[in-house]
Amino acid sequence: METPDAPGKETAGVDLGICHFAAVAYSTKQADLYPGNRLNQDGYYFPKEIANCDHSDGEEATRLHAKWSERRTHFFHNLAKHIVQRCAEEEVGRINSGKLAGVRKDDNGNSKNWGKHGNLDLHGWAFDRFSNILEYNAKVEGTGIMEVSESNTSKTCCVCGRKDDNQRVERGLYPCEERNDAFNADVNGAEKIRLDINNTESNSESSASLDEHRSTG
């Protein structure tokens, strides 16, 4: 299969998480949020239904497992396709995607504690599978994609570059004392991944405005 030319020279950053399954920040000063509500609901519903089956390997349990897998696969393919289409619209030629270790570990290398429900989601979601699907769709469109480190992204403001080891995200917002402002935390993370803040050679672009994001259900 012949690989088409890249849609353009813009860049994008993709951050996977819990509150929003994916956040995407573009060098065109746009950003998209993709909630994981349906995936969350399925993650609670199907295990309970399967647990209520008389036999864990019986016909009904097998049917529920298959239906759950089908719905999750459908979600992943549709989301990956939509993200790549949006990248084409924004003329993105390269996507930076946060390394999956950053989803499961904090900046100190310890397992992230997302709370009781969050931890259930984290272990149930197939981040690896989605990343592979996203990579395939991107390559079909001629868009390059690479994994970058998420180290310190939760402690650094992508606009001013200030790092605060005591930084806390509250109500989904990342507060920046330097700018006396607050940004959506997931978009802030996606923008830092786009800039690849841990690679000084590639961190030469101006940051996107975090005020211009939209939520895509």
Automatic annotation (TrEMBL):
Biased composition (Low complexity): 198-209
Keyword list, A-Z: DNA recombination, DNA-binding, Transposition
Domain Cas12f1-like TNB: 127-193
Keyword Phosphoprotein: no
Any one GO molecular function term: DNA binding
Record region (Disordered): 197-217
InterPro entries (alphabetical): Cas12f1-like_TNB, Transposase
Domain Probable transposase IS891/IS1136/IS1341 residues, every copy: 3-103
GO terms (BP aspect): DNA recombination; transposition
NCBIfam families linked to this entry: IS200/IS605 family accessory protein TnpB-like domain
Recorded family membership: In the C-terminal section; belongs to the transposase 35 family.
Protein's name in the database: Transposase, IS605 OrfB family, central region
